Amino acid sequence: MTTPPIETDPPHDLVGIGIGPFNLSLAALADGVHGGIDAVFYEQHPAFHWHPGLLIDGTTLQVPFLADLVTLADPASPWTFLNYLRARDRLFPFYFAERFHIQRAEYDAYCRWVSDSLPGLHFGHQIDAVRWNPERALFEVDYTQLDADGEADALGRTYTRHLALGVGTEPYVPEPLRLLADARTVPVVHSADYLDHREQLLAAEHITVVGSGQSGAEVFLDLLRARPAGAEKIHWLARTEAFAPMEYSKLGLEHFTPDYTRYFHALPEQTRDALLPRQWQLHKGIAADTIAAIHDELYRRTLHGGWPDAVLLPGVTVRTAGRVATTKVELHLEHIQQATRSRLTTEAVVLATGYRERPLSRLLAGLDPYVRHDATGRPRVDGQFRLDMDPSVTGSVYVQNAERHTHGVGAADLGLAAWRSASILNSLTGKEHYPLPHRTAFTSFGLQQRELSSLPRQTPELTPLAQGN
Question: Which terminus of the chain is less hemmed in, N or C, by CB atoms within 10 Å?
Answer without folding.
Answer: N
